[in-house]
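Objective 1b. Sequence-to-structure analysis of SDR family NAD(P)-dependent oxidoreductase.
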Amino acid sequence: MKKIVIVGATSAMAEHCARLWVQESPKVLVLAGRDQTKTERVAQDLRVRSPQSEITVQVLNFLDPDCIHEWVEGVTADGVPDIVLIAHGSLPDQMDCQQELGLCEEVLTVNGVSPALFAEAFANPMQRANRGTLAIIGSVAGDRGRKSNYVYGAAKGLVTRYAQGLQHRLARTNVKVVLIKPGPTDTPMTERLKADGVNFAEVSDVAKTIVVGVARGTPLIYTPRKWILIMMIVRHLPRFIFNRMDI
């Protein structure tokens, strides 16, 4: 059976991806989370959907480099996973981040530094084994800093640059690095934005795109696909036009 490790397994995108993976065929799934109860709930749902799958739960500190390294060493001791999906994150209120430097630091770390540390920890054994797919969920918010979410966007910008560098490093190996950039998606993390009239994608549709893209080893996935064009325009808008926009 294929072995898949999901870091941030309680995220809605990750959970829906896991459902699709076990629907294809039984899997060995390792679900990593920060909350035992929430992560076990996801695992129990997957066990009901796929009794033949082997599903384990691991709870660890996502912000401790030593803890991450030790855990990844253990997970890869009997062989590297076929797929690693790094999916954790949080969506803060931008104004709160501007007022509270502690929160600002936490958001930058959780959404940027922590995913990079997990990816780096898995990249080394994958490179030695010369196999596996490493998928990292970033965001369209990382394509250009905007006043409405630039702290979150800066963290996701870090993920983008990190993934690009990792792709370059592993270009001559059989290890695939997939960077995923979802647009606004209907998940619990975006619940507070619904009052702002944001147009959300269905999380099940986003998950399907991710699963297909990961299977193909697609280097960059925008989902829904319309965000390829939207963000290309946003990235190339002249500053004097961009600065007049309330986004």
